[in-house]
Amino acid sequence: MIYESLMSRAGDAEPQKRHGPTRRVLDILEWPDRDFEFIHVTGTNGKSSTSRIASSILEQHGMKVGLFTSPHLVSFRERIVLNGTPISEEQLETVWAEVAAAIAIVNAELESNGSPFVTFFEALTCLAYTAFSRGGMDAAVIEVGIGGSWDATNVADGRVAVLTPISLDHVARLGATLPEIARAKAGIIKPGSTTIQAPQHAVVEEVLIKCANENNATVVRAGRDFEATVMDATEHSQTIRIDGPFSLPPERKLNLAGSVHAINAAVAVAASAAFLSPRDLDPTAVRAGLLSATSPGRMQTVSINPRVLLDAAHNPAGAEALVGALRALYPARSIAFLISVLNDKDARGIVRALSTVADSFFITDSGSIRATDSAALLDIAHAEAPTIPARRFSSPAVAMDAALAWVADDA
Question: How far apart are CA 286 and CA 226, in angstroms?
């Protein structure tokens, strides 16, 4: 009910390029975001996984850690995690009552000058920050919503700024070129902070380094200061080597599939080291953090016989990473994709990437008001991959039944 209330009262409108209302709500709540320090994570792909791994590592160091990610998969409470557990209904009700009262005051002020009300994500950010404060969190890992500079989460100052791989996405809001998008995301880099950079395109790296230098921020860069190597991999886990100034034994087990998670893990370790300081990074805690980290909906196996994986790839770069993992783990398997794509995503680029390993497409409509019409998505599949069978289904459930029947026939 709180999710529905938040949606109806705050609205799921287009993100506003502003910080004023969020700051005002937090002001009324006596600045809960100042009660903890945090790692701030932005990028195009890998944000949630990196955030989850970093949170797990900090927890294993004995800290009470808040984790803020989006979107949720099943329950709204997944977005706000307190020390490894999604916020309880009771905690959520208590904090929401406090935040909703502050939002009502700010909405009245906004209405008086004709400004849009507090948006869904602005309200959600205030809810998360307040929950972490009232829950006594020592630290938090905060994933941005969109971009960085004007994102609601950026009203607070992260001591460590993490930039996961940046590619084209949300071009209508962030810019049509990689440098424009990089500048928007680099807005989370604060004066005197430490910035952890995943492998980046050269033009992106140039922008990030420039922004870091302008803010007198320390730059810790993948490929120069740390790196990850996959030593061994299975369908469910991998052994990775993380090299860097961390004083860690070289090999670690990560219970996440896909080589992209090795990079995410290395970035998370580097971020944790910057947050704690490298000399305080405990090898035993890092080992336990990597072992216990989860990333639902990212190369997640939900059935073994038949083999069914879930992956939230929502842009061409993400789809290409998924393809790379599938090629490495399932080189001799036939692969069918059951897909639905939101209407602000590059559906053509996603289908084009997936088509390099696809044997069949099962296309449906997710039911979201933002979903690309499945008929239009079918046309895209026919245009981008004319030799690959593609069929359209009325719902995800019907599409899944058809895909499972296809698997059975192919076995």
Answer: 15
A 10 A CB-CB count for 234 gives 9
* Residues 350 and 253 grouped into a single domain: no
Q: What is the CATH number of the domain that holds 355?
A: 3.90.190.20
Looking at residue 167, what DSSP letter applies?
-
Same domain, yes or no: 323 and 384: yes
Q: CA triplet 82, 87, 88: central angle to 5 degrees?
A: 135
CB-based burial label for 9 (10 Å; 0-12, 13-18, 19+): middle
Q: What is the pLDDT of residue 277?
A: 82
- State the residue for tokens 């842009």: 315
Whose structure tokens read 């698997």? 407
Residues 257 and 405 in one domain: no
CB 228 within 8 Å of CB 251: no
* Residues 216, 361 within the same domain: no
What is d(CA 177, CA 309) in angstroms, rounded to the nearest whole number?
Answer: 32
Identify the bridge partners of residue 300 per DSSP, sorted by sequence position.
310
Instruction: Say if residue 287 is in the same domain as residue 333.
Output: no
Gap between the Cα atoms of 252 and 259, Å rounded: 14
Judgement on whether residues 192 and 169 belong to the same structural domain of the protein: yes
Q: What SS3 state is found at 28?
A: helix
Mind listing the pLDDT tens digit for each residue in 236-268? 888 998 988 876 766 788 988 888 889 999 999
Q: Between 259-276 and 47-60, two packed helices, what is the crossing angle to 10 degrees?
A: 50
Instruction: Give how far the C-alpha of residue 8 lies from the chain's centroid of Cα atoms, to the nearest Å.
Output: 25
Q: Are residues 70 and 116 both part of a single domain?
A: yes
Sheet containing 218-221, strands listed edge to edge, beginning at the edge strand earlier in sequence: 85-86, 80-82, 65-68, 139-143, 37-42, 160-163, 194-197, 218-221
pLDDT 10s digits, 80-114: 999 999 999 999 999 999 999 999 999 999 999 99
- State which residues form the domain around 384: 300-410
Strand-pair category, 218-221 with 194-197: parallel
Q: Same domain, yes or no, for 98 and 230?
A: yes
**Start-end of H helices in 304-411:** 316-329, 347-354, 374-384, 396-410
The count of structural domains within the chain is 2
Give tens-digit pLDDT for 171-215. 566 667 898 999 999 999 999 999 999 999 999 999 999 999 999
> pTM of whole model > 0.85?
yes
